[in-house]
């Protein structure tokens, strides 16, 4: 191998699980930034990671609905299927095939350190699926099947991306190649970790049992306003510095959400609302959230009236994704020493 690392052309990949409805966390931490990346002109590939979703039981009819609704969410938020490749993971076999290779590269000890597995499996790890444990190797395959270089994600995915880098580096080292890029996580903005509205120390999540803990992109204006009004906070007014919010996670979370929705910094929010109580701040935040989310909600409903068109878009995206991933998979098989009949 040469001393200078091989330069891979910039290519962005990211995905979201159709494991429920989209939340404000998915929107601010991921989707909104996917749109910015697309609009910046870099090649962008976005995936509904349905194979990840089934690492925990999914009702088949609900999974189909959630996958289509997620696709509608991507498009309603601004992803243009002509400019970005948009598809569902299971339609491109390279993801699962490369994941097997990576299962053989990743070490048990690496996967055992993954906090998401510990969080999701909880005390019942013996009963969790093997898929849930191996999830990060599939995630590495999702990204590396495209030789993607940059991955916009929320803060919770940082550890999985470090593992993706470790897998790429070990594969390259073990086979003496510079075949897989060492990807860069892109974790930016005011809302890289949107917290639950009921508990400022827990991530807002689509699978949280409490619907009041999150804002769903399908929530109507009344539901959004009600959830924000009831969001847990403290009795103090907003301070005049961000540092003073260090021990007030719920207040900090609402400030971050406001900043991300308004495309301003949390400092700007503090400058505007210092000294104001939540009686003033929460309704202002609710108005802003409704203003930004209502058009997405309306467009998602419109798109969901024609699921055949959504399926067509996903099929078209899958064909384009496959055209990139299949040759990379084949080269990987060659490197590993797996015989392929000449076609
Ligand atoms: N609360 C969040 N704040 C910021 N970003 C978030 N993301 C998720 N929750 C937040 C980002 O959204 C992308 C897609 O995530 P995912 O659906 O693939 O899986 P997840 O991170 O496990 O999301 P959930 O909502 O918590 O799903 P469940 O409940 O099914 O596990 C990622 O970029 C993630 O960082």
UniProtKB/TrEMBL annotation:
<feature type="binding site">
    <location>
        <position position="142"/>
    </location>
    <ligand>
        <name>L-tryptophan</name>
    </ligand>
</feature>
<keyword id="KW-0547">Nucleotide-binding</keyword>
<protein>
    <recommendedName>
        <fullName>Tryptophan--tRNA ligase</fullName>
        <ecNumber>6.1.1.2</ecNumber>
    </recommendedName>
</protein>
<feature type="binding site">
    <location>
        <begin position="25"/>
        <end position="26"/>
    </location>
    <ligand>
        <name>ATP</name>
    </ligand>
</feature>
<dbReference type="InterPro" id="IPR014729">
    <property type="entry name" value="Rossmann-like_a/b/a_fold"/>
</dbReference>
<dbReference type="InterPro" id="IPR050203">
    <property type="entry name" value="Trp-tRNA_synthetase"/>
</dbReference>
<feature type="short sequence motif" description="'KMSKS' region">
    <location>
        <begin position="203"/>
        <end position="207"/>
    </location>
</feature>
<comment type="similarity">
    <text>Belongs to the class-I aminoacyl-tRNA synthetase family.</text>
</comment>
<comment type="function">
    <text>Catalyzes the attachment of tryptophan to tRNA(Trp).</text>
</comment>
<feature type="binding site">
    <location>
        <begin position="154"/>
        <end position="156"/>
    </location>
    <ligand>
        <name>ATP</name>
    </ligand>
</feature>
<comment type="subunit">
    <text>Homodimer.</text>
</comment>
<feature type="binding site">
    <location>
        <begin position="17"/>
        <end position="19"/>
    </location>
    <ligand>
        <name>ATP</name>
    </ligand>
</feature>
<dbReference type="InterPro" id="IPR024109">
    <property type="entry name" value="Trp-tRNA-ligase_bac-type"/>
</dbReference>
<keyword id="KW-0648">Protein biosynthesis</keyword>
<feature type="short sequence motif" description="'HIGH' region">
    <location>
        <begin position="18"/>
        <end position="26"/>
    </location>
</feature>
<dbReference type="InterPro" id="IPR002306">
    <property type="entry name" value="Trp-tRNA-ligase"/>
</dbReference>
<feature type="binding site">
    <location>
        <position position="194"/>
    </location>
    <ligand>
        <name>ATP</name>
    </ligand>
</feature>
<keyword id="KW-0030">Aminoacyl-tRNA synthetase</keyword>
<dbReference type="InterPro" id="IPR001412">
    <property type="entry name" value="aa-tRNA-synth_I_CS"/>
</dbReference>
<dbReference type="GO" id="GO:0004830">
    <property type="term" value="F:tryptophan-tRNA ligase activity"/>
</dbReference>
<dbReference type="InterPro" id="IPR002305">
    <property type="entry name" value="aa-tRNA-synth_Ic"/>
</dbReference>
<dbReference type="Pfam" id="PF00579">
    <property type="entry name" value="tRNA-synt_1b"/>
</dbReference>
<feature type="binding site">
    <location>
        <begin position="203"/>
        <end position="207"/>
    </location>
    <ligand>
        <name>ATP</name>
    </ligand>
</feature>
<keyword id="KW-0963">Cytoplasm</keyword>
<keyword id="KW-0067">ATP-binding</keyword>
<keyword id="KW-0436">Ligase</keyword>
